[in-house]
């Protein structure tokens, strides 16, 4: 009982956020599992199905900065609850669709808006409000929530789709997202002042007062943050690297790994289990990345992450086979550790360069991540339709990742003299 009383409320808020992220992550695992079932039932090309995935990925990113601004105005709890309802509706209504435009409207638009409202800008906002100490570590843990959702849902969805049809898998995702809503409304809190406490690690003398609502509307604040941040080289370097990050994770591996493995004779549940293993190793990798972000220069971390990812992708075409070979397991482990390890250092750099407006700016950086993912998802599907295989996509992705490493190291040229002192961009954004 004594230990429970001593637990800071920030940890409970983080735990609820983790569960919410896991619930929303169910849909993130769905496209790769359902591409072939949808193709077989409706005859839609992989390019058409990939277009719906691309719109989802694009909205997932574009919504993030506006959602971050909405959270500043209306609170975390309300925005997250509505987002989960959208995810549930978008996934559940797919069981009634008959035309490809309905897939685009549901998978692309509804679920894209819902998941985008719970994207990593939500993580940046929550950790910025509730944590002073352990901020990087908690960012890593919450980011891993998406990977945990993938780990939980992927094998289950693959088996459900194979044994009971893709509609059962879609309804399972809808139910999981909806089930988290009561917990969010019950336990998620917007600010430490709601409970009369300070953020974790903040001095006890700090008054637990909630910040006043922004003077401008959410859309105006989000667009103003983009306008000011876009005048700095650091923003474009971060956005460029993160666009490549999205292209080589969600857009490529997350969407097309299962179909690519299927092309080589591997059963879809087996391929889904491999993708789930990426999620398992990603949990460890992202938490470790958060720990390292609290202790090392984030520019160096990003450089290493992108370079190692690029090398692994260059080897991937030679590893596919009808059965799981040891070399593929090595790739899964290596790539999994690096999957979203880029998030904690990127969030930290947005705070460093843009101060209090860091979460909103990170929303725009994350939008570039999803823009890259959207392009990669569609382009890879089109390449597969035209070339008959995915080899070219893996090689291009490997080269782009190495380029992202170079962009990350170029951030040293834009580094301001004192990390603790706000930059002009940060001062302007916070005003």
From TrEMBL:
User: Looking at the keywords, is RNA-binding present?
Assistant: no
User: What is the membrane topology noted in the UniProt record heading this document?
Assistant: Multi-pass membrane protein
**Which PROSITE patterns does the UniProt record give?**
MFS
Query: What keywords were assigned to this record?
Result: Membrane, Transmembrane, Transmembrane helix
What InterPro entries does the entry give?
MFS, MFS_dom, MFS_trans_sf, Proton-linked_MCT
Instruction: Cite a single Pfam family from the UniProt record.
Output: MFS_1
**Intracellular or extracellular location(s):** Cell membrane
- Mind telling me which residue stretches traverse the membrane in this protein? 42-67, 79-97, 103-124, 136-160, 166-186, 235-258, 270-292, 304-322, 328-349, 361-380, 392-412
- Please give the chief subcellular localization of this protein: membrane
Looking at the record, the residues that make up the Major facilitator superfamily (MFS) profile domain are 12-416
Kindly give the SUPFAM superfamilies that the UniProt entry links to this protein: MFS general substrate transporter
Please state what the protein is called.
MFS transporter
Species source reads Dactylosporangium salmoneum
* Higher taxonomy: Bacteria, Bacillati, Actinomycetota, Actinomycetes, Micromonosporales
């Amino acid at each position: 009982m004594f230990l429970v009383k001593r637990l800071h409320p920030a940890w409970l808020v983080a735990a609820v956020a983790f569960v919410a992220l896991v619930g929303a992550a169910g849909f993130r695992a769905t496209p790769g599992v359902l591409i072939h079932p949808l193709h077989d039932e409706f005859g839609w090309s992989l390019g058409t199905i990939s277009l719906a995935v691309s719109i989802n990925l694009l909205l997932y990113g574009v919504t993030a900065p506006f959602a971050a601004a909405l959270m500043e105005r209306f609170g975390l709890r309300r925005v997250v609850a509505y987002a989960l309802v959208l995810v549930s509706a978008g996934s559940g209504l797919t069981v009634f669709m008959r035309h490809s435009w309905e897939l685009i409207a549901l998978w692309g638009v509804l679920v894209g808006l819902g998941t985008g409202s719970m994207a990593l800008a939500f993580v940046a906002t929550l950790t910025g409000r509730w944590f002073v100490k352990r901020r990087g570590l908690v960012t890593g843990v919450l980011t891993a929530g998406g990977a945990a959702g993938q780990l939980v849902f992927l094998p289950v969805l693959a088996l459900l789709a194979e044994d009971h049809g893709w509609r059962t898998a879609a309804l399972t995702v809808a139910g999981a997202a909806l089930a988290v809503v009561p917990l969010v409304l019950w336990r998620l809190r917007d600010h430490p002042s709601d409970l009369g406490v300070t953020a974790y690690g903040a001095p006890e003398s700090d008054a637990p007062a909630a910040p006043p609502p922004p003077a401008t509307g959410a859309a105006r604040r989000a667009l103003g943050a983009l306008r000011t941040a876009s005048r700095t080289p650091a923003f474009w370097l971060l956005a460029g690297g993160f666009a490549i990050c999205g292209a080589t994770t969600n857009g490529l591996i997350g969407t097309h790994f299962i179909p690519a493995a299927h092309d080589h004779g591997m059963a879809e549940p087996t391929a889904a289990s491999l993708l789930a293993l990426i999620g398992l190793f990603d949990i460890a990798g992202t938490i470790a990345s958060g720990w390292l972000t609290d202790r090392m220069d984030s520019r160096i971390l990003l450089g290493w992450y992108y370079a190692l990812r690029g090398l692994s992708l260059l080897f991937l075409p030679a590893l596919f086979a009808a059965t799981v070979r040891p070399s593929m397991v090595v790739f899964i482990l290596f790539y999994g550790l690096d999957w979203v390890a880029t998030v904690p250092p990127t969030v930290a750099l947005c705070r460093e360069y843009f101060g209090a407006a860091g979460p909103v700016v990170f929303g725009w950086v994350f939008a570039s991540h999803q823009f890259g993912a959207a392009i990669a998802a569609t382009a890879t599907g089109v390449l597969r339709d035209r070339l008959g295989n995915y080899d070219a996509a893996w090689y291009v992705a490997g080269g782009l990742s190495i380029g992202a490493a170079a962009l990350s190291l170029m951030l040293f040229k834009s580094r301001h003299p004192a990390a603790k002192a706000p930059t002009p961009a940060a001062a302007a954004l916070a005003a």
